[in-house]
């Protein structure tokens, strides 16, 4: 009974957490004179990727480098196939030209580059981690500075709520992160308790409930953003989160300790699957009804995700 109540509480916290995170991000985007898409690529992505960073840091200090890679790769797969799949299943998503011309190509570049490094070196050293952070910083500087130039005229015509201060916007943002974290914690822990009561194997729990739980902040934020008609925020959240996971989370973790692949399956299966999925995602947004994700594409992405879970189980 307690597990069921915590499960419901988890969903409630996630909804309001996503609501506050979106509201704070939109207000800050307006005040900083940047687009909703860039806000999703920076502010929201950093917020929703913070759990992966904390998990990775804790794992590397516990001598569990495979957890670092598994955490990041699994999250990126879930973000594209599960989160975007679920969101586009209920909302038609229009992908902006900026995402098509710059953001997705950069994500693909980051995915291939990190894979290349891991394939030939099998490790992320302090020096490589520093390079990843420098590349990310240059990219963020470029998109923010360009956005401020492009949005200037648009912002002049917007009606800005003067009663919404920077402090209130930051409080909304921080409160949203707080609620998302505890909402995810409640949801995952209560779901595990319920699954154990139903005698479901722990291994099945790990690759389903726990894996989905790590992407709940992105899912909650993207759905709330879509409900509020902030589609650019929803798309920017996912693309930006995957970029942050590869460059910021791996880069920051490597500054503390070198990350070495211990289980070759992570590279030969999981990372390869992530590259293939990213390529498929690119094909969906470039080739078939360019710049749009609809119910059919959403269902296809979800089918891929469940296929990945099934293959992981039988292997």
How would you describe this protein?
The protein is mainly alpha-helical and 315 residues long. It is built from eleven helices and four strands, in the order H-H-H-E-H-E-H-H-H-H-H-E-H-E-H. It has helices spanning 2-31, 36-61, 65-90, 97-121, 126-156, 166-197, 202-213, 216-227, 231-256, 265-286, 295-314, and strands at 93-94, 123-124, 259-260, 292-293. The protein has a two-stranded antiparallel ribbon. The longest helix has 32 residues, at 166-197. The chain is globular. The two termini are 35 Å apart.
**How much is the radius of gyration in Å?**
19 Å
| Distance between the first and last residues' Cα | 35 Å
Summarize the helix and strand pattern as letters: HHHEHEHHHHHEHEH
Instruction: Indicate the structural class.
Output: mainly alpha
Q: What topology, given as strand order, has the largest sheet? A: 1-4
Give a short summary of the structure.
The protein is 83% helix and 3% strand. The chain is mainly α and 315 residues long.
Descriptive labels:
mainly alpha, 83% helix, single chain, 315 residues
Draw up the topology in text.
Blueprint: H1 2-31, H2 36-61, H3 65-90, E1 93-94, H4 97-121, E2 123-124, H5 126-156, H6 166-197, H7 202-213, H8 216-227, H9 231-256, E3 259-260, H10 265-286, E4 292-293, H11 295-314
Antiparallel strand pairs: 1-4, 2-3
Helix pairs in contact: 1-2, 1-6, 1-8, 2-3, 2-9, 3-8, 3-9, 3-10, 3-11, 4-9, 4-10, 5-9, 6-7, 8-9, 10-11
